Amino acid sequence: MQKAPAQLIPSSEAKASFGELLASLSADRPVGITRNGRVVAILSAPEAEVKQANQIQLGELAPLYAKGSITWRDVEEQTGASFGELLVELAKQHLQLPRFTAEKRPAQIAAFERALRNAKRRP
Predict the structure, then answer these.
(1) 65 and 113 fall within a common domain
(2) Total of domains in the chain
(3) Does 16 map to a domain?
(4) N or C: which terminus of the chain carries fewer CB neighbours within 10 A?
(5) Closest Cα partner for 53 from 23, 26, 21?
(6) How far is Cα 102 from Cα 47, in angstroms, rounded to an integer?
(7) Do 59 and 79 form a contact (C-beta atoms < 8 A)?
C-alpha cells in the first residue's frame, strides 16, 4: 500500500537538490516529483524502514485498540498490519482484545429465530 506523496516538487528542483531530497525522505512522507504539473515519480524510504516505522506505530496503537478507543480498521489503515500482526503485538504488550456488546438488529434476531425453529423441526 503506497501512501500519497506528502510533498510535490518539480523535477528540475529535485535534480538540483537531489542529496537534500534523499536525506529528507522518511517512511511516512514520500515525495512526488512532477513534470509539467503531473506526478511522474514518487520517492520514498526503503521498504524495511517503512515496515519498521509501521511496527513502531502498531506498538503505539495496540493499547488504544485494546481499550476500544480505535477500531481494527483504523489500525489497518494507519499501519498496513494484518489482524494477526495486531494479535501478536497485543500479546507482546500483555493486552487483551477489546470487549464490546454487539447491538442486535431485528433482521439478525429474526434470522436466528428462524434457524432455531428449522433446527427443531429436523429429526
Answers:
(1) yes
(2) 2
(3) yes
(4) C
(5) 26
(6) 38
(7) no
SS3 assignment for the chain: CCCCCCEEEEHHHHHHCHHHHHHHCECCECEEEEECCEEEEEECCCHHHHHHHHHHHHHHHHHHHHHCCCCHHHHHHHHCCCHHHHHHHHHHCCCCCCCCCCCCCHHHHHHHHHHHHHHHHCC
pLDDT reading at 3 higher than 70: no
| Residue 106 lies in domain | 47-123
Torsion, CA 86, CA 42, CA 19, CA 16, rounded to 10? -160
Q: Residues 26-85: pLDDT tens digits?
A: 656 788 899 999 999 888 877 665 577 678 889 999 999 999 899 889 998 888 888 888
In a domain, 108, yes or no: yes
Closest CA to 98 of 74, 123, 58, 64: 64
